[in-house]
Every structure is written in structure tokens, then in C-alpha cells.
Amino acid sequence: MRPDLSQASATIEGMPRWDEGPLVGRADELARLLAHVDRAVEGRPSAVLVAGDAGVGKTRLLDELARRSAERGVRVLTGHCVDLGDVGLPYLPFVDLLRPVAADPELSAVLADHPVLAGLLTGRPGAPVPGPPEDDPDRGSPLGRGALRPPAEDGRLQLFEAVAALLTQVAADRPLLVVLEDLHWADRSSRDLLRYLLARLLARLVDEPITVVVTYRADDLHRRHPLRPLLAELVRLPGVERLTLEPLPDADVDTLVRGLAADSGGLAEGTVEDVVARAEGNAFYAEELLAAGLAGEALPMGLTDVLLARVEQLSPAAQQVLRVAAVAGRQVRHELVSAVSPQSPEETERALGEAVHHHLLVVSDAGRYRFRHALLREAVLADLLPGERVRLHAEVAAHLSAHPGAGTAAERAHHARESNDLPGALSASLEAADAARRVGAPAEQLQHLEAALALWAAVPDAAERAGREQWELLLDTAAAARAGGELHRAVAMLRSAQQLLGPDGDPEARARVHYTLARGLTRIEETADALREGELALQLVPAQPPSVARTWAVATHARTLYALGRIAEGDAAADEALAAADALGLDGAWADTAISLARVQGAGDLPTVRARLHEARLRAERSGDADVETRVWFSLAIVAHEAGELEETLAQAGAGLDRARALGVEWSFYGAELRHLEVVARYATGDWDGSLAAADELARVPDMAAHVRADGLLVLVGRGDPAVRERLAWAQGLATRWDSHVLLMLATVSAEIELAAAAGDARTAADRARWADERLHALWGEDRPATVRLAASAVGAVADAAATARANGDREALAGWVAEGEALAELARAAARAHDAAVGELGVEAQAWCARLEAELGRLRGSASPEAWRQVVELFGYGHVYEQARSRFRLAEALLAADDRPGAAVELTAAHEVAVRLGAAPLRTAVEALARRGRLELPGLPRPAEVSAVLTPREVEVLALMAQGRTNRQIGAELFISEKTASVHVSNILAKFGASGRTEAVALAAARGLLS
Questions:
Q1: What is the pLDDT of residues 815-848, one digit of tens each?
Q2: Where does a domain end: 201, 228, 246?
Q3: What is the pTM of this model?
Q4: Exposure check for the chain: N or C terminus, fewer CB within 10 A?
Q5: CA pseudo-torsion sign 182, 183, 186, 189
């Protein structure tokens, strides 16, 4: 009869476990966690990120939290991440989390509302999707077999939303505590799902009685660990707290050790001190050291020795099942252990019971065995002989192959590789890649495809197993890399395919690689190389008769020619592509070319452009080409943005992102561009919280989506948030990529110029604008409209420096700054003229920046024009809330200089309202200071003090002369008083302002509006 393993003894030779006794040394941390649970009870969502080194007590703390929460009537669901090495197993912790829901009769009915979760919970996510259309250039065309198909429509978006909705329904009758353990082992898809859930619960302030607590090993997070950026982003969400479990103080470890040993007659004082010293605040280490000591073994010097000392106390049979379990994984089914173990089923059960009773294995709620701590499994693995490890992996792989429902393809691939079954590993890796594609997990798909490529040369019948040639697999892998936003990796794969085919390869195959590479190169700003690749593709395939390869080659060539401004040549290529695409029924190629034509030939005719793009979208959807379809959505969003229609921009970007998620290409090139437009459009409309949340939403941004996170600098700079320095340093650290990622460069340099201007560093602002213009000129040629904004911002900083030089009477400095500003302005004008000649009229925002430039030039020359600034305010009125408010501030300055105090008050009031609403502290400070200087009232601010209430009439006269730089002797002579009397008045003025010197007193008086 099989023993009841769930009722294992709680002692080791009479010693209670530390994680089953009273919680020691974590009262403060538990109180903080319970406060979040209490928020859930009150109907307010929140989350806690619990960090700590391995063995520091995270699980023990969460066990106590779960117990206390249950006492409060809170439902607890727990999911565990598993260390599977290089195996990508999407959504595993959420499967673990949701299985109790399926098993609970009271809750299982809820699953019926979410059929997309059925496949996830049964281990069969998604049904096979229909095959690709015959005209698809990258899949199933006459050039290749067995290529990748796009993910099913009910992909990531539906899955994510279903999980979120299910948790909301579960929490409807009782508050819910969701616990995710060991997040450092989570796969990328699980991290993305966690990010989605927290953003849905917290960033949008949904009122749900849910608390989410996740744990991770802080000591596992090396610099490039994929969890690190996710944590940095999640902690910025409202309601998220980071809780770090530091090592326990020695006094608490002492209490813990004495409590564990109390029932065993105590320990010698030297033993307690030794355990406390060696544990170094780690509760698990302390327990293991103590257990080894109590067992009569000499205390080992290292933790691994301690762990193995515990293992070696077991019988040989129990040690064997531990070795099997260690190889199989942290959680393993009884059937697998029994199948691989050399003992009889009865002996295996007894051995498992022994391991469970000695607390080396525990039985999970799902009925699986798992090691009580990951370090224990690691120690057992490390102790295996190489031959034994290979044999066990082989036996596990054989069992999984013989029983398809016992594990995933990813697990089979892992065990096959570790057992040197390279053919089996290749086949399983390809199967795992296809499974990852079906659930919309491009990162895991890429991982498995690269694993298959690494095995190719070692498998004689690799092509037969893969159902395609190696160069085709390279193209499929490049497509997966593009879908995940890894453009440089995709380009590298394509170059490898070129080398593999060589100069004598099949012409159509070579042409396919050339034009696919050309498409990738244009996206990393290597347009000249892209042109060359496109020309090579065209040389390999004749125009007649029309072919799939020729059609895509000429369509891609048209895009490249348009990007280089060679419009006439681009038109000729586009005409050929459209005609061939119609003849062959290639909807994808037709739509791709139609997008290019709409953007070039329809400039200025917005209704026509939109009509063409909507037709292209319908054809792209019909083609099944995710890349072309997301390009259409991006084009619809960008034309709205250029027209100043920000709400339409957000609508198109949102719909495009939803579609990209459904297709599993959220962070492909155009998926990232859609998110970029969402961030900047929210910033412009004044939704700064939404803009920053969108910029920070991704757990780990791919290299070519880094500009999305850098876009968050716009909000941080505008708010004067100290966090801007950290993010700016991160973006500057990517400077080696700027030439291939211009939007990242522009976001970074814009922030540098704004910060320099705020610090009064006009030289840096001007230098950075010049540098950026030079790089844009080198990369884009004459047509570089981005220079207009950069130059206008820099001229504003230069105008400030000129005003200071003018006030100080420094004619030489003034002349230098005026010349600098005029030169920067000419750069901007040249860029605007070039764009007008090459493309047509500038967009609405660029026109506003041109007006800003001219208005700033008026300030630079000492003649700020209210009319010029009023025009800037009107032009930014298309919807750019912040820039309009900043322009109102400058208009108010000009109106005050023209003695139009009522008009200035109106503009300052409007600017102040926006600054307060956005949390734009620097602008608010400037507005309030100008109001004080101009003696203007602002709603909600104290009425400016009258000068007579602060200074005597004589002190007013003395202050005015101080502001002109007069000495005490000069002041006395001008006011017909003695130098000593003048000195007394100056001292009184300094005392009233609390100033340390004359300059500070004058500045304070000016800021308070007490100096005319």
C-alpha cells in the first residue's frame, strides 16, 4: 500500500523544523505584508516584491503570511517558478497557481467563462493553427517547407486577459492573496504576464480585493539577469512595494538555533556559536548546519557539504530516488521517479517516504515531489558522476518520449541534450519552438530554434528531422528574432544563411535571403547596405514571369528607395510590385507596397492616405503576415500624429498594439513603434502617468525597443524627478547603438538639452544640439526634421544665457551667445527646408517648434514679441498640453515687459493650472516666481506681499541701488547719507531676507516681487 506521504513527520530525530515553528526575527516584514493584505480586504489592490538571498527565509515568511491571511478570510493561491536550466516552459507558475481553482468544485465553474485557459491547464495550449496561404513569402512558399506560422488569434492578449479576469472573479466573494515564488526562474512569457496583471490592477487603479506577493533570489540577479529591468519597472507602479529580507541578526539566529534544538536536550555553547557564525544570518543555512551536527556528523565547512551530509544519512535507495528527482527537475511526478529508479515500485515508495519524512522532499498540492530547497537539489546534482548524470537524463528522456502526456517538448529537449541524444534533442527543440509559437511566446521560440541550430552539424539527418534545409531554419529563426524585437540577432542569422547558400546556391533562395536581409537592415539605419542587398536580390530573379521571390524583392526595394529619397525609382519599383502581387494574389506584398505609396504619394491628403491604408490593412490581415499588418497599424497611427490628431493617434496605436499582442509580435519593430507613439501621444495630451506607465510596462525591453523606455525621460524631465538621472545614465550607456537606433538617440539628447537648459548650462545644450544634427545629417542626409525641436530647445537655453550677459553688461559674452543662437537657428531652418523639398509640409508639431524657434530668437535678441509667443501658444494648441503651457509662460513674460499685466495674469493662470495638474514642478516654480516678480495673483497662492510691509521707504531705495551693484559709499553719496548709515540699511535688508550677502538678498527680493 502506498504510504501517505503528505503526512510526513515534522521532526528530524526529534528536532522541529524552523519553518514550522514560531516565526523568528521577521515581525516587521510580516507586518508590512499583512498591511497589504488588509488593503485587499478593504478592496484596494497592491503588490509586494520580496527579495532575499537563497535560504534567507522568504518561503517561511510567506507561509506565515498565508496562514495569517487565511485567518482573515482571504483566499490564497500560490504558484512556483521552476529552475529548468535552458528550457523555456511558458506560463508554468500561472499553471501552478490556477490548478487549485480547477480542482475546487466551488471555483471550477468559473473556468467555463475562459475557454482559452483550458489548454493552458491541461498542458495542451492552443490548437494547431491553419497552414499559411500559398502566397506567404516567408512560410510555405515554393522556396521553403515547414516554416513558421503566425500565432493563433487567441494568443497572448486573450490568455493574459483571461487570467486577469479569472483572478478577478475568484476574488469576487473573498479577498485574494496571489503568491508567486522564485520569480528569478520565471520564463519571459510568465514575466510578461505578471507585468500585464500588475499594470491592469495597479496602474489603472482597478478596485479589486487582490494582493500580489512575489519572491525572488536577490543573489541570483546578475547584471544582465532578465528579471532586473522588470523589477525596476514594477516598483514604479502605484501600490507596489519592494521588501528586502536582509540576513537575520546574530541574536535572532541564536534564538532560532536554540529553539530548534530545545527538544533534543540542547547543544553545547560552542556548537551554537559555530552555527550562528557560519550561518551568517541565513535561516536555512543555520538549520542545515544544525541538522548535520545533530546527526553526529562533523560540521562541514561549506553549505554543499552540509546538504550532502543530510543526504548521506538516508538509505542507498532513498539517495538514489533523490538523484533521480534532482535530474528530473525540482518538481517530479511519482510515476517518473518510479519508472527511472532501478528499485521495485514498493522499494521506490519506501525510499520516497524516507526522503519525505526526513524533509528532503516534500509533496506539493499537485501531488508532485519537490526538493524542500533548490540548493539541496543543486548539491545532489553536483555530486553526480558524469556518467551517472548522462544515464539518468537518458532514462528520463526515454520515459517522457514513451508517455507524451508526462512532460513537455521543452523538457524532453533538455533531457535529450544532457544525455547526449543530439538527434532527439534537435527534434524536441523544434517541437518546443512550435509549441512556444502557438502560445505567442517568441522569446522561448527563438531560444529553442537557436538550440536546434546549435545541434544541426552534429545530427546527420538534421534536414530530414527538421523538414527543411538549414538555411530555411536560419530564416525561421531570424523571423522569430524579429518578432521578439531582436533585430541585430535577426540580421546575424540572415548573414549566416547567405554564407551557407554561397554564390552557387539556388538563385531564388539567395534572393529570398537578400531581400529579407534588406528589410532588417533598414530598421537598424543601415539603408545603404539595405539598398545593395535589394539590388542583389533583383539580379537573381527575372521580372518575367512574375514570381513570389521577385515580387517581394521589388516591394522591399521600393521601400528602401523611398527611404533614401529616390522617389521616381521607388515609384517604378512599386508599380512593378503591385502589378505582380495582383497577378500572383500576394496580399502581403501588395499591402506592403501600398503602405509605402500611401505615405509618399498621399502626403498632405489625409483622407486619401487613410483610405489606402485601410485597404492595405484588410489585405495584410488576409495574408497572415504579422509584420506587414503591424506596419499598417503603425502607419495609421503616425499619419494621425503628424496631423496633430492625438486622440486618433492613441486609438490607432492602442488597436495596433492589441493586434500585435494577439499575433505574438508586441515587441517586434512596428510593435515597439506603436508603443513609442502611445508614450509620446499620452505625454503630449497631458496623461503623464499613463505615458510613464506605458514607457515602463515591459519587463525586459529588446535592444531595438529601448527608445520606448527612454521616452519616459520626457515625463521625468518635465516633473523634475530625480529618477531622471538614473534613466538618462542608462540611455547614455547605450550610446554605441545610437547610429542604428536614432529614436533612442533623440530621446536621450532631448533630455540632455532640457536638463542643461534647466541648469543654466547653455554651452552643453548648444553642443548637444549640434552633435545630434551632425549625426542626423550623416544618417538621414538633408531631410532631418528632428533638428528643429532640438535646435529650438537649445536656442531657448542660449537666449537665457544672452539675457544674463545683457543684464551684466558683458557685451563680448552677449555677442557670442547671439551668434551661437543664430547659427543653431540656421541649422533648424535648413532641416525644415530640406524636409519641405523632399517630403512636403512639416507636420503640425514641427510647425509649432518652428514658431517656437523664431520666438526664442526674439528673446535672444532682447526683443521678446508677445505676437510671436501668442502664435506659438496657438500652434501648440493642437493638443500638446505641456508645450503650450511653457509657451504661455514665455508669452506672460513678454506681456509683462510690454506692461500688459492683465494679459500676463491670464496666461500665467492657465500655465499654472497645467503645471499643477501635470506635476511639472520646474514649470510651476518658474510660473510662481514670475507672478511674484510681476506682482500678479494666481489662484490658490497667497497674495504677493506689498513692499511697504517688508521694507521701509529708505530700505526700498537702498535695495534698488544694491540691485544696480552700488557700494555702500556710492549708496550713501546718492542718497545723501553717510557710508555708515548706508551700511546699517544694507545689514537690515540682509537680515529681513535671511540672506548671507548682497547678491542673495537682491535675488530673494526679485523672486518675491519686491524689486521693480
A1: 999 999 999 999 999 999 988 877 778 889 999 9
A2: 246
A3: 0.68
A4: N
A5: positive
